[in-house]
Amino acid sequence: MTTNRKKLAAAVGQLEGHLAWLKEEGVQKLAADPKILAAAPPVLSTGTVAKTDSKPWKKETPTFQPLEKSLVGGSSSSRVQARELELPPTTSTNPALAEIAQRVAACQKCVLGKTRTRTVPGQGNPQPEIMFVGEGPGEDEDRQGLAFVGRAGQLLTRMIIRMGLTRDEVFIGNIVKCRPPGNRAPLPDEMAACLPYLREQIAMLKPKVIVCLGATAVKGLLNNQLGITKLRGHWQKYEGVDVMPTFHPSFLLRGGGEDKARWWEVWEDLVAVLKKVGREPPPQKTSAG
């Protein structure tokens, strides 16, 4: 096998391992870039990748091991019962949410409107018990028009599943609806221009609890300048709605500072959120069980 074939076979093995992991975690459907699919080689019914002018390449054993294999609130041997999970469509079927999304799509109130690819109004249940609010769209979100679909979004999805929920049972949005260049934090004037849309959404959604993911979400929604390390785990209020500040998934992906301590702190916050809405986290299966 040539070097290029080995590299491609290894990449296919890694992809298969990653897809198996996603299926195990309950993810059934993923958005795919049509350009990438068009450029991919054909796949045989046996699962091997076919070369157009030769024999099928040998399928190698997957070697991919996701960085975030340990679930928040569980050990590396933990498993979540598979549940169907599909990202909601970009355009909401709820008339009020759709109207807000249309105004967001036409918005040019700040400089972010000039650099975005797509607006990201947020998506999910129009009558959620729990609403998640992050900082702003990243590259993947800017391309797809959906909130939290990149690497941090995948981790948030796993958190939601671990809570016993699916993404279509909650609502997920951001302080700003357009991607700041280079994924930088949104500036004060950008947040001020965009916050009215989020406030309208909250007033319409009427969530029982809002989870603020990271310092920017806390500053934008609550106008609280305290650091997230001091605020996390302490209940706040927004227009009569209980608000739980906690760390952003991207912070956890960067290591969280000290081993897995931050992971457990976030899980404690999410358990508190579940209790606030009258729920309990589902029992966690282990390899021994």
Q: Key terms for this structure?
A:
alpha/beta; 2 domains; six-stranded mixed sheet; 11 helices; 6 strands
Note down, in words, how this protein is organized.
The chain has eleven helices and six strands. With 289 residues, it is α/β, with parallel strands linked by helices. It folds into two domains: 1-66, no CATH class; 95-276, Uracil-DNA Glycosylase, subunit E (3-Layer(aba) Sandwich). Strands 1-3-2-4-6-5 form a six-stranded mixed sheet, sandwiched between helices. Strand 5 (236-238) and strand 6 (241-246) form a beta hairpin. It starts with a helix and ends in a 13-residue tail after the last helix.
> Remind me, CATH topology of the largest domain?
Uracil-DNA Glycosylase, subunit E
Spans of at least 5 consecutive residues whose pLDDT stays below 50 are 20-27, 39-90
Give, in spatial order, the strands making up the sheet with the most strands. 1-3-2-4-6-5
What is the string of SSEs from the N terminus onward? HHHHEEHHEHEHHEEHH
Q: Give the N-terminus to C-terminus distance in angstroms.
A: 42 Å
Number of domains: 2
CATH class of the largest domain, anyone? Answer: Alpha Beta
User: Can you say what the CATH homologous superfamily of the largest domain is?
Assistant: Uracil-DNA glycosylase-like domain
Strand content: 5-15%
What is the count of β-strands? 6
The overall pLDDT average reads 78
Main sheet record: 6 strands, mixed
Rg, please?
20 Å
What would you say the CATH architecture of the largest domain is? 3-Layer(aba) Sandwich
Shape assignment: globular
Helix-residue proportion:
25-40%
